[in-house]
Amino acid sequence: MPELRGYQMKSQTISSFSAVVLAAALAVSEPAVAAAAAARSGVAWQYVSSDVEVDKAFALGRRTGKPIFLYWGAVWCPPCNQVKATLFSRSDFVERSQAFIPVYVDGDKPGAQKVAARFKVTGYPTMVLFKPDGTEITRLPGEVDPQRYLLTLTAGMEADLPVKELLRKALLKQPLSAAQWKLLAYYSWDTDEQQVLSTQELPKKLSDLSALAPPDLVEVRERFGLKALISFARGKPDTPMSLVETEAGLALVEQIIADKSSVRRHSDIFVNYGNLLVERLTRPGESRKGLAKRFDLALGYIAQDSTLSHLDQIDVLGTRIGLWKAADGSDNLVEAQKSQVLRQVAQVVSATTDRYERQAVVPGAAHALSTAGLLQESDELLRRELGKAVAPYYHMLGLAGNAKRRNDSKGALDWYEQAWKKSEGSATRIQWGTSYVGQAIDLAPTEIKRIQAGATAVIAELEPKGETFYERNQRSLSRMATRLVKWQGSEPARVLAVEKIKGQVHNICQRLKAGDVSRANCNAVLNSFFTRS
Q1: Using one digit for the tens of pLDDT, what is the confidence trace for 150-173?
Q2: Which of 44, 115, 172, 225 shows its CA 20 to 30 Å from the CA of 454?
């Protein structure tokens, strides 16, 4: 079979090539990592995880007349580590931080999930700027480049009106300054949690803002238009976009990707949502292939920017892999494309010496390799990073995902279980433990003992304290309960297992103070065991 022989020869070429480039990528010396960490400058963070500590930080803001900058993150979170490495460590950010009260909330600290409920922050990372009197001014996007971020932060600190009020004035066609329009355009709608606009009204309002912004503020109009388009696309995953939405969106995208300066201005949007836009704006066939090729050409301009961070370079590559597939009409890359992926991953990973930045870059690079069909190389990268990663248990999720791609259910579950058992921090352990139970239900539904043991262990770790049943914790536990109820069906052994788990939760709820919000939150989790979808 000559076709098979040819494929084997190509595979051997890729394999030997990958061994060389990945060895280079992984040969980052520990002294280099240590030196990079030592060079990091510091921000005078107020570390808080309770209402009392938060109140003290905000009181300090009132006394000093300084705004409050609240950062919500987690140790394992790749984007959080990227922000630490490329923004918080910058000398200009450190210098700017002297003008505000920097408040750091680690989502895994005791009481942190209750603080999250207070400020309506969920996704990591979320960054919020408040006036000295505690009024929320704006939510800052984490995906734009550091220079743009600092400009947006400064605009927020100098703002006399919060974003909510700016939005009201803009929609009423009342005059705004150019700085106010830009603050509104760069608001982090992704972490708004429906405080300013509901999910349902977001696409239409952003589209209105694009039309209402002054004609000379081209960047602002484009950004509102793109954000509106993404909101349409994300909000209707199973529903085709209307002809008007599609034609208007396609015209906007084609206009921007034809101009290099416009592409660079909105690079964060194109890198994060390029494949989504191509998929939603076209149908399979020549139109999709054509747009994917033009989009890839635009990303090629971005890739040539020497100021891109290491993670941005990986993100660009990851998006281009999807575009290559769309342009070729195939889920498989050609050998030349695979070689390009390997080379670029090797270059970026080897250049990333900061330990925190590697926590973001390596999982992204491993995902790019997996998407390119290079699962063995992805595994090798993740495995060799385990001993020096900030949070190696996050990398284990990547190994689990690779095993799942191979249809290796046992291998995937073993890695998911290891990731959960090695994870640190109360909220993370709840989130990953419940996720492991969900994976067990999906991949090994007949293994009743495994599923029951996993759920029992997760609940056994829950402390009967108020902060246990807030935000991420409550959502994760409720999802697990719903999955278990669906899984049990009417099979006696499964029903019995779920009844025992339900009893565990009931006992914890009973130990919380009656009338307390946490008791109600715990009961909400318990009620999920009685809801059949």
Answers
A1: 989 999 999 989 999 999 999 999
A2: 115
- AA identity, residue 499: E
Nearest to 310 by CA among 348, 272, 366, 266: 348
Determine how many CB atoms are found less than 10 A away from the CB of residue 517.
14
Residue 342 is inside which H or E element, if any? helix 335-351
Phi-psi region of 176 (alpha: psi -120 to 50; beta: other; left: phi over 0): beta
SS3 at position 230? helix
Under 8 Å CB-to-CB from 154, ≥6 apart: which residues? Answer: 96
Report the candidate in 24, 124, 129 with the shortest Cα–Cα distance to residue 82: 124
The H or E element containing residue 21 is helix 2-26
Query: Which strands, in side-by-side order, build the sheet including 101-106?
Result: 46-47, 101-106, 68-73, 126-130, 136-140
441, 445, 448, 449: CA torsion to nearest 10: -70
Q: What angle, rounded to 10 degrees, do the helices at 471-488 and 448-460 form?
A: 160
DSSP H or E segment with residue 487: helix 471-488
Instruction: Quick: pLDDT tens for 432-454.
Output: 999 999 999 999 999 999 999 99
Q: Which amino acid is at 353?
A: T
Residue 101: its H or E element: strand 101-106
Nearest to 109 by CA among 519, 468, 475, 520: 468
* CA gap 305, 392 in Å, rounded: 31
Compute the average pLDDT of residues 245-267.
92
Nearest by Cα to 355 from 93, 124, 82, 72: 82
Model confidence, pTM = 0.88
CA-closest candidate to residue 71, choices 153, 159, 194, 160:
153
| CA–CA dist 378, 18 (Å, integer) | 10
- Bridge partners, residue 101, by sequence: 68
Q: What torsion do the CA atoms of 394, 400, 402, 408 make, to the nearest 10 degrees?
A: 170
Question: Of 130, 122, 139, nearest to 57 (Cα)?
Answer: 130
The span from the CA of 62 to the CA of 56, in Å, is 10
Angle (CA) 292 296 299, round 5°: 140
Q: End-to-end distance of the chain based on CA atoms, in angstroms?
A: 51
